[in-house]
Amino acid sequence: MLKPFRRAALALTVLLASAPATLAAQCGGDFSTFLRGVKQEAVAKGLSQRAADTTLRNAQIDRKVLARDRAQGVFKLDFLTFSKRVISQHRMQHGAKNMKKYARIFDRAIKEYGVPAPVITAFWALETDYGGFQGDFNTVNALATLAHDCRRPELFRPQLIAAIEMVQHGDLNPATMTGAWAGEIGQVQMLPEDIIKWGRDGDGDGHVNLKQSSADAILTAAAFIQHLGWRRGEPWLQEVSVPGNLNWADSGLDHTKNGNDWARLGVKARSGQIANLPASLILPQGRKGPTFLAYPNFAIYLEWNQSFIYTTTAAYFATRLGGASVYNPGNPDAGLSDGQMKQLQSKLQGMGHDVGKIDGILGSGTRNAVQAVQQKLGMPADGWPTPALLNRL
C-alpha cells in the first residue's frame, strides 16, 4: 500500500501538548487490568457491558503494531519523485472510471457537502488504491495496543472506546475487522471516533461500512472534509508560472497575498484565471521547480495529513483528476542527501532556529529556517535547501 503517512486524526496529535494525567495513569501495566479499566470507562459513558465484553474479549498486544509505531517516518522523497511515483496512469484511469461509476453519490457529495469528486477521489486513491489495500491488522488489537502503550494514550484510548460503540451499533466485528496498523478503517482510512461523528450511509443499508461500501466511503469523506473547513465552490491548488525577479521571501505557506496582487507581480496561471482569493505561492523544490498557488481550501489537506509533500501531491492529483495538465517540472537545483539534510538541520539548530528533530526530513520548521538563512545570506529565499547553502554555512 502506497500510504507512507499518517491520516488526519493521527496528525492532530501534534496539537495535544501532553497526555492528561488520568490517561497517563491508565496506560501501561498489566494488560488485563488495563482492559478492565477500558470496559468500565465505556460502560460509564453509556455503552453496554455486552458490547465492551464482546469487543475486548480476545484483545491482545500486537508487537508488530508497536514496531511500526516506533519506526514510523515520512518518505524523504522530493515532490517530483514522490508525485510521479504515486500518481500513476493506473490511478488516473481508475479515478476517472470511479468518478463515472459513482457519479450519483459524488453528486450527493457536492450537493450536500460542497466537496468535488476529484478531491475525494485523490484521497481515496492515495489512501488505499480505491479500496484495494486497506491494511491487514486486526483493528481492535491495534487500538488496544496503542492505547495501552504510554506514548499516546490520549489519542488511542478514546478510539478504543469508540470501537466499542461501533460494535454496539453493529458496524464493527472485533474478530474480523482489519485495517491500518494505527487503527484506521476502510477505503478512506478513518479512525472510529471520526467514523461515528462523520460516517454517512451512502448506499442506504442502514449501516456505515467504510470497508466494503464505496458509497459510504465517498459520502463519509465528503462529510469529514466539509467538517475540516472546506469552502464550497473555491479552488484549492493552481499551477502558475512566475517571473524570475520575484521576491522569493514572499513564498511559502506562511505568506499570503490576494490573487490580484500575485497577478500584478507577474504570476500567471498555466490555465484559467487566478482567483482573487488569499493565496500562498508554494515552491516544493524551490523557484526552479513546479510552482503553485495554494488557496484557503489547501489548508484542509494539511488537516488531513501534515506532510507538505503528501498534501501538495494529493492536492495536485485532485487538480489532474479535475482536468488540469501535467505540471511543468522545471529544472530545480539539486537537493540534499539524507546525511546532508541532517547536517544542515544541525547547523540551523545551532544558529537558534527551531527545526524540530534532526531527522533529515524537510518539514515546515526546516523550510522556514532555510528561507530565513537564505534571506540573511543574500541568496534567493525560496526555502529549498541546496548544497550551495550547506557550503555557505
Detail the topology: elements first, then pairings.
Blueprint: H1 8-11, H2 21-26, H3 31-44, H4 49-56, H5 63-71, H6 79-86, H7 89-101, H8 103-113, H9 117-128, E1 137-138, H10 139-148, H11 153-169, E2 178-179, H12 192-198, H13 214-227, E3 237-241, E4 257-258, H14 259-264, E5 268-269, E6 278-282, E7 292-294, H15 298-304, H16 308-321, H17 338-350, H18 364-376, H19 387-392
Helix pairs in contact: 3-4, 3-11, 4-11, 6-16, 7-9, 8-13, 9-16, 10-11, 15-16
Organism: Roseibium limicola
Domain Transglycosylase SLT: 31-318
Protein name: Lytic murein transglycosylase
Structure summary, number of beta strands: 7
How many domain modules? 3
Strand order of the largest sheet: 4-6-7-3-5
User: Terminal Cα separation, in Å?
Assistant: 39 Å
**What's the pLDDT, averaged over the residues?**
91
Structural class per helix/strand content?
A: mainly alpha
Query: What helical percentage do the residues reach?
Result: 40-55%
* CATH class assignment of the largest domain: Mainly Alpha
- For CATH, the homologous superfamily of the largest domain is named as Bacterial muramidase
Estimate the strand proportion.
Answer: 5-15%
Pfam family, one: SLT_2
Signal peptide: 1-24
Domain Peptidoglycan binding-like: 339-393
Domain Transglycosylase SLT: 31-318
